[in-house]
Amino acid sequence: MSERPKRKRKRKEEPAPTFEEALARLEEIARQLEDGDLPLEKAISLAEEGLKLSELCEKQLTQAEGKIEQLVERMGRTELEPLHRETEEADEEA
Predict the structure, then answer these.
(1) Phi/psi at 76 (nearest 5 deg)?
(2) Residue 92: band (very low, low, confident or very high) from pLDDT cuts 50, 70, 90
(3) What is the C-alpha separation between 19 and 65, in angstroms, rounded?
(4) What is the domain partition of the chain in residue ranges?
(5) CA distance 29 to 26
C-alpha cells in the first residue's frame, strides 16, 4: 500500500489590520518599549512586530498616494504639491 504525501494545511490568515489599527498598535508598542520594564525577549518580540506594522503602514500609504495621484490626474491636474509645503507656509505666516 503506497502512502499519500501529507498535505500541508493552510492556516487561515487573519486579514491585515487597517492603517488606523496598525498605527494604534505601533503607538502602543512604542509606549511599552519606552517604559523599559520589559524582559529582553518581550522587547525584541515587540520590536519585530513594530517593524512589520511599520512596513505595512508604509505600503498602505504608498498605495493611497498612488490612488490620489490617479484621481488628481483624472480631474485634470498634473502635479500634487507635497503636504509639508502647506504646513511650512502656515508656520511662516504665524
Answers:
(1) 100, -5
(2) low
(3) 13
(4) 19-93
(5) 5
DSSP of 55-89, one letter per residue?
A: HHHHHHHHHHHHHHHHHHHHTT------HHHHHHH
Q: What percentage of the chain reaches a pLDDT higher than 90?
A: 53
Grid coordinates representing 46?
A: 515587540
Q: Would you report the helix, strand and coil content of the chain in percent, each value rounded to 5?
A: 65, 0, 35
CATH topology of domain 19-93: Helix Hairpins (1.10.287)
State residue 82's pLDDT score: 72
Torsion of CA 31, 58, 82, 30, to 10 degrees: 10
Q: What is the pLDDT of residues 64-77, one digit of tens each?
A: 999 988 888 888 86
Question: DSSP letter at 94?
Answer: -
